[in-house]
Amino acid sequence: MRLWNDRRLRLSLTGLGAQYLLALLAVGAFSVNTGNNLFYLVFSLMLGLFLVSGILSRRALQRLQVLSLEEGNLFARVRGGIRLCLQDPGRGRIRGLELHLVMDDGMVEPAFLGAASRTGETLVVLQTRAGHRGWSRFRSLEFRTRFPFGLIEKSRFVELDHAALVLPHPRTPPAQPASWRGEGQRALPQEGTSSPEGARPLRLGDAPGRVHWKRTAQRSQPWVRTFDEERPMGLHLRLDLAAWGPGRSFERELERLSGAVLQARLQKRDISLELHGVEGIREVHGHTACWRALGLAQAAGTAEGPMAL
Predict the structure, then answer these.
(1) How far apart are CA 160 and CA 66, in angstroms?
(2) pLDDT category, 178, cuts 50, 70, 90?
(3) From CA 262, how far away is CA 287, in angstroms rounded?
(4) Which whole-number Å values give the CA distances from 101 to 6, 115, 117, in the listed order?
(5) What number of other Cβ atoms are within 10 A of residue 266's Cβ?
(6) Reduced to 3 states, what is the DSSP secondary structure of residue 5?
(7) Domains in the chain, please, with CATH?
(8) How many whole angstroms separate alpha carbon 253 and alpha carbon 96?
(9) pLDDT score recorded for residue 115
(10) Is 180's pLDDT higher than 70?
(11) pLDDT given at position 190
(12) Each residue of 226-268: pLDDT tens digit?
């Protein structure tokens, strides 16, 4: 049962709280009708417990302020962590709070804050799943608690206006990078001479004798062995915005390039992205910079797919 609701505070009576309140009224009625001092004592104790529950839950919600909200690399349709930093002067005070973050075009799983940090700042990580790439906003943060006895649920709302850039979904790239559209290699790998240290997908120019048969059977695509002395080659991506029109085909191309950036990062390879648009050619370097450029890219053409040359 909701007792109070406004923009910043909501007060609700839980099922256990309703039963407790009915028992409290019944004991009070018996004490008035019978004049028994024992009933008066029980009524006083139950009423005191109810008031203490309200006071402690109110203290659990007090003096919490949002310092920062960091999304890191947040991909569309992939679970990612949101780091929420709170200013908490409670110095070890028990909080017992559920944290609910409201996000446009996305879902944020609730997190739990058990006790205040003694350092004055508390870090909470919330799991997020965004729907589409591009800018999204976190609208509000709700602190919700039933501490300490679960009789009344109190909620406090904090208004937010934090923008987060959602990156394209990293689609798994094909087996042979040399056949990709918009991809080029900046340097050829040096053949290693020492013992193998791992494996990677087959690239153009790899010797057949380096095929990693076990990994190839596991992944259903050709993989080759890598060596300690082998240098990873850089990857250069190209995207012509004028050759693509808005639509699903363009989004799938961005997802494919995002997957290539992720694979390059896992393989510790340098990467660069060359964007051709109406304002000219722009080139960015680094994994995070390439992801952000893909997240902000807008198709400048009219065709649904790539234009024929």
Answers:
(1) 9
(2) very low
(3) 8
(4) 18, 19, 20
(5) 10
(6) strand
(7) 1-167 (2.60.40.10), 169-187+231-309 (3.40.1350), 197-230 (no CATH)
(8) 45
(9) 86
(10) no
(11) 45
(12) 765 555 567 899 999 988 988 999 999 999 999 999 988 888 8
Helix, strand, or coil (residue 24)? helix
Please state, for a pLDDT cut of 70, what percent of the chain lies above it.
85
Q: What is the pLDDT of residue 175?
A: 54
Strand duo 152-167 + 74-75: pairing: parallel
CA distance 43 to 26: 9
List C-alpha distances in Å: 82 to 1, 13, 166.
32, 31, 12
37-61 and 15-34 helices, crossing angle to 10°: 150
The token pair at 55 is 């006071």
Residue appearing with tokens 């999304």 = 71
Amino acid symbol at 189? P
- Element of type H or E holding 37: helix 37-61
Distances (CA, A) of 272 to 23, 205, 251, 255: 69, 22, 19, 16
